[in-house]
Design goal:
single chain; alpha/beta; 7-stranded mixed beta sheet; 11 helices
Protein backbone atom coordinates (compact mmCIF):
# COMPACT_ATOMS: atom_id res chain seq x y z
CA UNK A 1 0.00 0.00 0.00
CA UNK A 2 1.16 3.54 -0.60
CA UNK A 3 2.65 5.62 2.17
CA UNK A 4 -0.40 7.90 2.13
CA UNK A 5 -2.68 7.40 5.11
CA UNK A 6 -5.93 5.78 3.91
CA UNK A 7 -8.13 8.46 5.48
CA UNK A 8 -6.30 11.08 3.39
CA UNK A 9 -6.79 9.25 0.09
CA UNK A 10 -9.71 10.53 -1.95
CA UNK A 11 -11.23 7.03 -2.21
CA UNK A 12 -11.82 7.15 1.55
CA UNK A 13 -12.46 10.85 2.09
CA UNK A 14 -14.96 11.46 -0.72
CA UNK A 15 -17.28 8.63 0.28
CA UNK A 16 -17.20 9.51 3.98
CA UNK A 17 -19.36 12.52 3.15
CA UNK A 18 -23.06 11.90 4.01
CA UNK A 19 -24.19 14.15 1.16
CA UNK A 20 -22.15 12.13 -1.34
CA UNK A 21 -23.64 8.90 -0.01
CA UNK A 22 -27.20 10.20 -0.28
CA UNK A 23 -26.85 11.35 -3.88
CA UNK A 24 -24.48 8.61 -5.09
CA UNK A 25 -27.06 6.49 -6.93
CA UNK A 26 -28.75 9.53 -8.47
CA UNK A 27 -25.42 10.78 -9.82
CA UNK A 28 -24.24 7.44 -11.19
CA UNK A 29 -27.36 5.50 -12.14
CA UNK A 30 -30.16 7.94 -12.94
CA UNK A 31 -31.36 9.07 -16.35
CA UNK A 32 -31.56 6.96 -19.50
CA UNK A 33 -27.86 6.12 -19.62
CA UNK A 34 -27.34 5.75 -15.88
CA UNK A 35 -30.11 3.17 -15.74
CA UNK A 36 -28.63 1.41 -18.77
CA UNK A 37 -25.24 1.24 -17.01
CA UNK A 38 -26.90 -0.19 -13.88
CA UNK A 39 -28.87 -2.77 -15.88
CA UNK A 40 -25.77 -3.84 -17.80
CA UNK A 41 -23.74 -4.14 -14.61
CA UNK A 42 -26.40 -6.26 -12.90
CA UNK A 43 -26.87 -8.50 -15.94
CA UNK A 44 -23.14 -9.20 -16.17
CA UNK A 45 -22.92 -9.88 -12.45
CA UNK A 46 -25.79 -12.37 -12.39
CA UNK A 47 -24.43 -14.08 -15.51
CA UNK A 48 -21.03 -14.44 -13.81
CA UNK A 49 -22.55 -16.05 -10.71
CA UNK A 50 -25.22 -18.49 -11.88
CA UNK A 51 -26.93 -20.68 -9.30
CA UNK A 52 -26.09 -18.22 -6.54
CA UNK A 53 -28.92 -19.27 -4.22
CA UNK A 54 -27.59 -20.34 -0.83
CA UNK A 55 -24.01 -19.41 -1.67
CA UNK A 56 -21.88 -17.11 0.48
CA UNK A 57 -20.80 -14.00 -1.42
CA UNK A 58 -18.65 -11.08 -0.27
CA UNK A 59 -19.21 -7.73 -1.97
CA UNK A 60 -16.11 -5.60 -1.35
CA UNK A 61 -16.61 -1.88 -1.79
CA UNK A 62 -20.36 -2.42 -1.72
CA UNK A 63 -21.13 1.30 -1.43
CA UNK A 64 -24.89 1.76 -1.34
CA UNK A 65 -25.37 -1.99 -1.81
CA UNK A 66 -26.67 -2.15 -5.36
CA UNK A 67 -24.83 -5.37 -6.30
CA UNK A 68 -25.30 -6.94 -2.87
CA UNK A 69 -29.06 -6.44 -3.03
CA UNK A 70 -29.27 -7.87 -6.55
CA UNK A 71 -27.56 -11.06 -5.35
CA UNK A 72 -29.60 -11.24 -2.15
CA UNK A 73 -32.82 -11.06 -4.19
CA UNK A 74 -31.71 -14.30 -5.82
CA UNK A 75 -31.09 -16.07 -2.55
CA UNK A 76 -27.37 -15.51 -1.97
CA UNK A 77 -26.04 -15.06 1.56
CA UNK A 78 -24.33 -11.72 1.07
CA UNK A 79 -21.92 -9.71 3.18
CA UNK A 80 -21.42 -6.16 1.89
CA UNK A 81 -18.21 -4.50 3.05
CA UNK A 82 -17.22 -0.87 2.65
CA UNK A 83 -14.88 1.63 4.34
CA UNK A 84 -17.63 4.27 4.44
CA UNK A 85 -20.19 4.04 7.22
CA UNK A 86 -22.13 6.77 5.42
CA UNK A 87 -22.49 4.67 2.26
CA UNK A 88 -23.41 1.63 4.34
CA UNK A 89 -26.17 3.58 6.11
CA UNK A 90 -27.82 4.08 2.71
CA UNK A 91 -27.29 0.39 1.86
CA UNK A 92 -28.88 -0.76 5.14
CA UNK A 93 -31.86 1.51 4.57
CA UNK A 94 -32.37 0.13 1.07
CA UNK A 95 -32.07 -3.47 2.27
CA UNK A 96 -34.57 -2.86 5.05
CA UNK A 97 -37.05 -1.27 2.66
CA UNK A 98 -36.83 -4.32 0.39
CA UNK A 99 -36.89 -6.87 3.22
CA UNK A 100 -33.49 -8.31 2.29
CA UNK A 101 -31.16 -9.71 4.94
CA UNK A 102 -27.77 -8.50 3.76
CA UNK A 103 -25.05 -8.08 6.40
CA UNK A 104 -23.33 -4.73 5.85
CA UNK A 105 -20.03 -4.21 7.68
CA UNK A 106 -17.32 -1.57 7.81
CA UNK A 107 -13.96 -2.82 6.58
CA UNK A 108 -10.92 -2.12 4.43
CA UNK A 109 -10.50 -3.87 1.07
CA UNK A 110 -6.74 -3.94 1.63
CA UNK A 111 -7.04 -6.00 4.83
CA UNK A 112 -10.08 -8.27 4.88
CA UNK A 113 -10.67 -9.85 8.27
CA UNK A 114 -12.07 -13.13 6.91
CA UNK A 115 -10.37 -16.52 6.81
CA UNK A 116 -8.90 -17.96 3.62
CA UNK A 117 -11.65 -19.26 1.28
CA UNK A 118 -14.39 -18.13 3.65
CA UNK A 119 -16.75 -17.28 0.74
CA UNK A 120 -17.89 -19.11 -2.37
CA UNK A 121 -17.41 -15.96 -4.40
CA UNK A 122 -16.25 -12.38 -4.00
CA UNK A 123 -17.16 -9.39 -6.12
CA UNK A 124 -15.79 -5.86 -6.30
CA UNK A 125 -17.19 -3.27 -8.68
CA UNK A 126 -15.68 0.17 -9.32
CA UNK A 127 -13.12 -0.33 -6.54
CA UNK A 128 -9.76 -1.34 -8.05
CA UNK A 129 -9.71 1.85 -10.13
CA UNK A 130 -9.76 3.95 -6.95
CA UNK A 131 -8.00 1.87 -4.26
CA UNK A 132 -4.58 3.09 -3.08
CA UNK A 133 -3.10 -0.41 -3.72
CA UNK A 134 -5.18 -2.34 -6.25
CA UNK A 135 -2.86 -5.36 -6.19
CA UNK A 136 -3.30 -5.83 -2.47
CA UNK A 137 -7.08 -5.53 -2.81
CA UNK A 138 -7.20 -8.08 -5.61
CA UNK A 139 -5.01 -10.45 -3.62
CA UNK A 140 -7.39 -10.20 -0.68
CA UNK A 141 -10.37 -10.92 -2.93
CA UNK A 142 -8.66 -14.07 -4.16
CA UNK A 143 -7.57 -15.14 -0.69
CA UNK A 144 -11.05 -15.16 0.85
CA UNK A 145 -12.69 -16.87 -2.14
CA UNK A 146 -13.10 -20.60 -2.72
CA UNK A 147 -14.21 -20.48 -6.30
CA UNK A 148 -14.77 -17.25 -8.20
CA UNK A 149 -14.01 -13.52 -8.20
CA UNK A 150 -15.78 -10.87 -10.25
CA UNK A 151 -14.41 -7.34 -10.58
CA UNK A 152 -14.06 -4.52 -13.07
CA UNK A 153 -11.70 -1.75 -14.13
CA UNK A 154 -11.33 0.95 -16.80
CA UNK A 155 -9.24 -0.31 -19.70
CA UNK A 156 -5.82 1.12 -20.53
CA UNK A 157 -6.71 0.92 -24.24
CA UNK A 158 -9.84 3.07 -24.00
CA UNK A 159 -11.01 6.65 -23.87
CA UNK A 160 -11.04 6.32 -20.09
CA UNK A 161 -7.24 6.40 -20.19
CA UNK A 162 -7.27 10.00 -21.45
CA UNK A 163 -9.71 11.08 -18.76
CA UNK A 164 -7.68 9.30 -16.09
CA UNK A 165 -4.51 11.02 -17.25
CA UNK A 166 -6.22 14.41 -17.14
CA UNK A 167 -7.51 13.78 -13.64
CA UNK A 168 -4.10 12.68 -12.39
CA UNK A 169 -2.51 15.84 -13.76
CA UNK A 170 -5.25 17.92 -12.14
CA UNK A 171 -4.74 16.13 -8.82
CA UNK A 172 -0.99 16.70 -9.00
CA UNK A 173 -1.70 20.42 -9.45
CA UNK A 174 -3.83 20.47 -6.32
CA UNK A 175 -7.32 19.99 -7.71
CA UNK A 176 -9.80 17.87 -5.74
CA UNK A 177 -10.71 15.09 -8.16
CA UNK A 178 -11.10 11.33 -8.25
CA UNK A 179 -7.82 10.54 -9.97
CA UNK A 180 -8.59 6.94 -10.83
CA UNK A 181 -6.30 4.47 -12.61
CA UNK A 182 -6.71 2.38 -15.74
CA UNK A 183 -5.35 -1.15 -16.05
CA UNK A 184 -3.94 -3.38 -18.76
CA UNK A 185 -5.52 -6.80 -19.26
CA UNK A 186 -2.14 -8.54 -19.21
CA UNK A 187 -1.19 -6.90 -15.91
CA UNK A 188 -4.46 -8.02 -14.33
CA UNK A 189 -3.99 -11.56 -15.67
CA UNK A 190 -0.51 -11.82 -14.19
CA UNK A 191 -1.71 -10.60 -10.82
CA UNK A 192 -4.54 -13.14 -10.79
CA UNK A 193 -2.10 -15.92 -11.69
CA UNK A 194 0.05 -15.01 -8.67
CA UNK A 195 -2.94 -15.90 -6.49
CA UNK A 196 -3.92 -19.09 -8.31
CA UNK A 197 -6.74 -17.65 -10.44
CA UNK A 198 -7.32 -17.46 -14.18
CA UNK A 199 -9.70 -15.39 -16.29
CA UNK A 200 -12.62 -17.36 -17.68
CA UNK A 201 -14.66 -14.42 -19.02
CA UNK A 202 -13.91 -10.83 -19.90
CA UNK A 203 -16.73 -8.45 -20.85
CA UNK A 204 -16.26 -4.97 -22.31
CA UNK A 205 -19.18 -2.59 -22.01
CA UNK A 206 -18.81 0.60 -24.06
CA UNK A 207 -16.50 1.99 -26.74
CA UNK A 208 -17.44 5.64 -26.35
CA UNK A 209 -16.96 7.18 -22.89
CA UNK A 210 -19.96 6.82 -20.59
CA UNK A 211 -19.76 10.57 -19.91
CA UNK A 212 -20.39 11.23 -23.62
CA UNK A 213 -23.37 8.88 -23.69
CA UNK A 214 -24.78 10.60 -20.59
CA UNK A 215 -24.30 14.03 -22.18
CA UNK A 216 -26.30 12.90 -25.23
CA UNK A 217 -28.83 11.14 -23.01
CA UNK A 218 -30.35 8.78 -25.57
CA UNK A 219 -30.51 5.02 -25.06
CA UNK A 220 -31.36 4.61 -28.73
CA UNK A 221 -28.21 6.49 -29.75
CA UNK A 222 -26.09 4.52 -27.28
CA UNK A 223 -27.42 1.16 -28.43
CA UNK A 224 -27.11 2.00 -32.12
CA UNK A 225 -23.59 3.41 -31.97
CA UNK A 226 -22.24 0.79 -29.59
CA UNK A 227 -23.73 -2.07 -31.62
CA UNK A 228 -22.22 -0.61 -34.79
CA UNK A 229 -18.78 -0.30 -33.22
CA UNK A 230 -19.01 -3.79 -31.73
CA UNK A 231 -19.73 -5.23 -35.17
CA UNK A 232 -16.68 -3.35 -36.45
CA UNK A 233 -14.51 -5.03 -33.80
CA UNK A 234 -13.89 -1.87 -31.79
CA UNK A 235 -15.52 -3.12 -28.60
CA UNK A 236 -13.00 -5.94 -28.31
CA UNK A 237 -10.12 -3.50 -28.76
CA UNK A 238 -11.30 -0.36 -26.97
CA UNK A 239 -14.23 -1.33 -24.76
CA UNK A 240 -14.39 -0.14 -21.15
CA UNK A 241 -15.08 -0.73 -18.33
CA UNK A 242 -13.92 -4.34 -18.35
CA UNK A 243 -15.70 -6.87 -16.16
CA UNK A 244 -13.59 -9.93 -15.34
CA UNK A 245 -14.79 -13.30 -14.11
CA UNK A 246 -11.92 -15.35 -12.70
CA UNK A 247 -11.93 -18.85 -11.24
CA UNK A 248 -9.51 -20.60 -8.97
CA UNK A 249 -7.11 -22.67 -11.03
CA UNK A 250 -7.57 -26.15 -9.59
CA UNK A 251 -4.37 -27.43 -11.22
CA UNK A 252 -2.33 -24.69 -9.55
CA UNK A 253 -4.40 -24.19 -6.41
CA UNK A 254 -2.31 -23.42 -3.36
Amino acid sequence: MTGEHPADHYSYAVYADPATAECFDRRRFSGPIGTLVAETQERLLLSALPGVEGRAVLDVGTGTGRAALALARRGARVVGLDASEQMLAVARSRAGAKGLGVEFVVGDAHRLTYADRAFDAAISLRLLMHAPDWRQCLGELCRVTRDRVVFDYPAWSSGAALQAMGRRVAAALGSRTEAYRVLRDATVDRELARHGFRVIERHRQFVLPIALHKAIGSRAFTRATENLMARAGLLRLLGSPVTVVAARDRDGAR
